[in-house]
Task: structure prediction
Amino acid sequence: MDWFDVKEAARGPEARSASRAPSPPEARSPEAPRLEPGPLESNAEALVAGLNEAQRAAVLHGDGPLLIVAGPGSGKTRVVTSRIAHLVLERGVTPHEILALTFTNKAAREMRERVERALGSTVGLWIGTFHGIAARILRREIEALGGYTRDFTILDTADRNALLKQLIKDLEYDPKRFRPQVVGGWISERKNRAARGEEGVRVVHSELGGLEEDVFQRVEALYAQRLPALNAVDFDDLLLLVLRLFDEHPGLRDSYARRFRHVLVDEYQDTNRVQYRIVRHLASWHGNLSVCGDPDQSIYGWRGADIRNILDFEQDYPSAAVVRLEQNYRSTQYILDAANAVIRNNTARKHKELFTEPGNVGEKLIRIECSDENDEARAIVRQIREFVAGGARYAHCAVLYRANFMQRALESALRLDAVPYQVVAGLEFYQRREIKDLVAYLRLAVNPADDVAFVRAVNTPARGVGDTTLARLVAAATAAGVPLTRAIEDDAVLAEVRGRARSGLFAFRTLLARLADARELDAAVALDVVLQEIDQTRWYAEMDDGEGVQDRIANVDELRAYAEEYDDRQRSTPGEATGLRGFLQDIALVADADGGEESGDQVRLMTLHAAKGLEFPFVALAGVEEELLPHGRALAEAPDQSTVVEEERRLFYVGLTRAGARLVLTHANYRGFFGGGRPASPSRYLEEIPPELCAGGGVEFGKSRAVAFEVEDEEAALGAFEHTGSKLAIGDLVEHGHFGRGRILQLVGSGVNARASVDFVGAGTKQLLLQYAKLVRLGR
DNA sequence: GTTGATAATCTTTTT
DNA sequence: GATTATCAAC
Result:
């Protein structure tokens, strides 16, 4: 079977899609839709060239359990795609008998696109994220569990935290002390542990020293009781309820296990115990379970991912075929050497050594030391320009960072230099206020029990319903045991309210009644109803934060466009008309609305976590510093340091291996936050990269300024001592008679030449001769 | 009682 | 910097 030209695989997507493949053998199943094969995007034969005949057959179209352990850049997603195509075209498997599970929507989309290119269609195939597929299953079956209807709301993390905060207050605890986020994380972990059969295990959160466990448990109990009352599920429940469904209803379980003759799981190293058990159920009939993953890229331990799932696969499925794909088709040897050198320091792993084509040596890594985050951003922009000047496009470049707050400095430097960029899954679209407001109305239309949405919508735009009125409503609703939407239908309840609040509630009640008719409408039409019913002028006016409301209006338009697109997709997909409720459940699970769409020639900005599975010829890794990578908070919370140090190392490894040709690593000596900041030092992981792999054998400096960039210049610090009476260090907070307060970025020279560069609040960065500038040290 | 302005607070990663 | 708590003014 060689439908594909080996050499094409190496040439890039444009070249590949230009070719046409000869016809494959006729599909055997009578149910199989007639599929016109398109060119597979990449040559699966080439990717599995190192395998023997039996392994190759197992990977491409074999039955039974299969484990593919594949390093970064091995083309494993392409192999999985090829497998789907081979199953359909060669084994006569009908598309609707295949279930492919991924972790991110982006991965699912990519897989769908690739399969579409290979088969000409994805009709009938179930390709989606674990959570998306779980929502789909629950939409059909949740009523079997009792207490829920298919109109259930999916609470995202922000909603969950809002609810938890309310519950914490109801129990008369201080939400500042028991932060909803922390409590939520604790509950999440408990749920996950319960699925591992570890109910009795105490989860101790280091932030509180485990002293208030009973408080956590009380909130947890109340929360567990509230969710079904709201007809709502959180992200954990989505999976847990599917598991419960399969556990408690074997007949139903079997119907799914028989329906899917082949189950494929990508990024298996990131599965948690609940997902593990769901997959086991699904594979219980045919045992045709193919998983692929890379233990070295397991970066979701903090969210319950259990690396044992992949490490123990062969014990769980003793007849499993195991295939390793170690050749890397992405990166040059220097990059791979660096990645290998870093990951080698992890103990909890299976040995794996990446290799590339002989002769693909490439160029050395570029390591840049910068003074602060702005200097770092400028250095990265310079590197990008240089790379692009060499003939590459902006879209070939990515800037990766550990935490979202680092995005800002990078963005402003890119903007200043007019470099086009796109933030991938930054501030989530559906988290924006105007979107959440509109979605709250839609949620109420579908699920009147959704009190979280009610609270959000009732006074947006302002209807004169404040905290007191709301508290009264909640009390009445709780007493009657009904949702808030029912409580305001009761005239006796409204009789207690006077004035503006009263008329506001009446107006809201009428609005809800009209909205109730929208629940069976298409998403876009329902959205129009909401937009008609609310006082848009007022609503926009309230959100006007000086910048104008153009962005917000644009976002609303975008939501509407997305709703329309969803409706279109529904119409063209026979079988499951899900309408508005499907739309709402869908968007709760999608973080990046406009995301993914390769929108032109732009540099991509994203977190390291978001970068997994992607590749770019040019990658800049910002903030390779202690406290950031490994992250200080992760270390602080860890019951076991080495677990975190290793997981963060894997994160670094993921970052390194995204790069194809040029890899830039930067770190700053001072990292500013809002208002504050702190001195920073290079990451311990940076020292694990042999210096000879870096250009110039080591460090390059961020600024082209003539000033030397000694770190913590001892002499200069002494010089400063002479002039200020106290020893200064980089990062110190100082006061200047003229410029006010600032922070020391650099100390250079000694004696009368001792100079400091100080970043003043308001006045910017100044170079000062210490002899004259009478700096007063205020502290760090 | 509600609203709008000012002050405090917190910045890990995500389905 | 943006969200959220607090408080004076309607």
Summary: Chain A has a mean pLDDT of 82. The first helix of chain A runs from residue 13 to 18.
